[in-house]
């Protein structure tokens, strides 16, 4: 005697299959909800690096440019040179001033020594005047030495060198251009300073902690970068608040029914990178924070 007919077995099989599919769908939905709503994850990330804005310490015409655009350089490499003829003349003039000051001081020392050796044959007032002239000569020599050191520094600074290893970018400087003290003329990207900054919704910050493992995926690159949370920003700008008359706060009225979560920068240090992966400051990145419990 059959306990179940073939029709009932088929119906039971369809029921079990439906339950399995439903359970898998619920599990997949739960995992997606965790990934997008609970676990720290953002597509709003940027690759960043320290950019050295190279500026000359002296003004003048550019004599020569020793690098080209997108060139890799090492710390200490010559970048460009400012025409140093004027600074060489200033150095020579300062050197002459030191020589003259040295001669004047030596003469004042001899005069004072001679007047002292004469004893009572020379009035005390003359000895005192000799001492004063020596003090003045020493002060003038010290001033001339400072001017010489300044002239030497300016002459040295007419050659501009790389302060770190990196890559020259967006170079437009040419020989014959006039450069001014303190005005940047080229950018040097520090090749050892790359990091990723992810902008996370404020509601997800509770699940982010310093030293948490992180995974970074660059747009257009299937590879992954491994890193960790280095720091979390402690402040962002308040776009709805300004300063009005009498230094009183000016708060813009809002009529939004939906409040958008603020984005807070989280800095990710890069620990592992495929040598074939090219990092470019400004690249778009997807950042996922891996909870320690999931990485064990």
In short:
The chain is an alpha+beta fold. Helix content is 35%, strand content 28%.
Outline the structure in words.
One of its GO terms (molecular function) is transmembrane transporter activity. InterPro entries: AaeA-lik-b-barrel, MdtA-like_BSH, MFP_Efflux_Pump, RND_pump_MFP. Residues 127-154 form a coiled coil. Residues 193-289 form the p-hydroxybenzoic acid efflux pump subunit AaeA-like beta-barrel domain. By secondary structure, the chain is of the alpha+beta class. The chain folds into 2 domains: 41-51 and 191-295, Elongation Factor Tu (Ef-tu), domain 3; 54-181, no CATH class. 35% of the residues lie in helices and 28% in strands. It contains 4 helices and 16 strands. It has helices spanning 6-38, 85-117, 124-157, 292-295; strands at 41-48, 51-54, 60-65, 72-73, 78-82, 159-161, 166-169, 178-179, 186-190, 195-201, 213-218, 224-232, 241-243, 249-251, 263-272, 284-289. Helix 2 (85-117) runs antiparallel to helix 3 (124-157). The longest helix is centred in the middle third of the chain and has 34 residues, at 124-157. The mean pLDDT is 86.
């Amino acid at each position: 005697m059959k306990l179940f007919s073939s029709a009932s077995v088929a119906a039971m099989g369809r029921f079990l299959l439906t339950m399995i599919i439903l359970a898998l769908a619920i599990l997949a939905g739960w995992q997606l909800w965790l990934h997008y709503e609970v676990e720290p994850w953002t597509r709003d990330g940027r690759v960043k690096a320290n950019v050295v804005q190279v500026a000359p310490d002296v003004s003048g015409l550019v004599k020569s440019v020793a690098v080209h655009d997108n060139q890799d350089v090492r710390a200490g490499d010559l970048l460009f040179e400012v025409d140093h003829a004027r600074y060489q003349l200033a150095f020579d003039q300062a050197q002459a001033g030191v020589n003259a000051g040295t001669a004047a001081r030596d003469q004042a020392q001899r005069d004072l020594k001679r007047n002292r050796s004469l004893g009572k044959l020379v009035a005390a007032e003359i000895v005192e005047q000799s001492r004063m002239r020596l003090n003045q000569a020493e002060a003038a020599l010290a001033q001339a030495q400072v001017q010489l050191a300044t002239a030497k520094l300016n002459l040295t600074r007419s050659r501009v060198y790389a302060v770190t290893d990196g890559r020259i970018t967006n170079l437009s400087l040419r020989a014959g251009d006039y450069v001014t003290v303190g005005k940047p003329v080229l950018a040097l990207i520090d090749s050892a300073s790359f990091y990723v900054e992810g902008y996370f919704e404020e509601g997800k910050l509770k699940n982010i902690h310093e030293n948490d493992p992180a995974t970074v995926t660059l747009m257009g690159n299937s590879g992954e970068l491994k890193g960790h949370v280095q720091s979390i920003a402690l402040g962002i700008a308040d776009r709805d608040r300004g300063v009005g008359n009498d230094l009183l706060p000016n708060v813009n009225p809002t009529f939004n029914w939906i409040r958008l979560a603020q984005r807070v920068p989280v800095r990710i240090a890069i620990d592992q990178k495929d040598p074939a992966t090219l990092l470019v400051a400004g690249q778009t990145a997807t950042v996922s924070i891996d909870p320690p419990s999931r990485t064990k």
